[in-house]
Write a structure and sequence with these properties.
The protein is of the alpha/beta class. The protein is 33% helix and 12% strand. The protein has 2 domains: 152 residues, 3-Layer(aba) Sandwich (Lysozyme-like), CATH 3.40.80.10; 57 residues, Orthogonal Bundle (Muramoyl-pentapeptide Carboxypeptidase, domain 1). The protein is globular and about 50 Å long.
Length: 227
Amino acid sequence: MIERPSPNYNGRPAGKSIDLLVIHYTGMPDAEAALQRLTDPDAQVSSHYLVDEAGRIYRLVDESRRAWHAGVSYWAGERDINGVSIGIELANPGHEFGYRPFAEPQMIALIALCRGILTRHPIPASRVLGHSDVAPARKIDPGELFDWPRLAASGIGQWPRPTEGPSDLASVQRALARFGYEVAPSGQADEATRLALSAFQRHFRPARIDGVSDEETRALLYGLLRL
């Protein structure tokens, strides 16, 4: 563990526990550029950890503090995601600078880091999320190349078994909201629903991300709710 303290943090809200783990990619050309930004007081962004492609783990903000990693976000009624979460940045150029698969040493280090976090905080498997899950209108990281099934197989997060369920859009919207996305059961294919479905697919069905409530997407969603 390498200490690179960031000045960009503040206290956690009283009476709330840490119950979310949010995974990001840096979306910058290299890890050093990301570290400079995450520790720059003028940038006003931070995360608890950064893991570079060689597997080095940098601790930037103590877990007892609120890091500024999620921005405007929402999950299951909670809008102060920074106040109840641990944020991990993975060094990766992202879609803007040449998105690529996450390196093997990086994934090994991430799994070890997450396991440690989960021993210290009561974070349910359903609340191990990507930045795109909590901010689907703004973010797409860690993206479709991130190996969520591997994390789930390592005891971090969850992976669904497809299950049948209702096909009408209002039922799908209620299922998305029950899982955690900010969606109203309007029965209309509105923008919030399209974005939530796209975020869900990016996490659980990355082979096709189109924001459409197709049979495969519905089966995965209903499967998650039955875990």
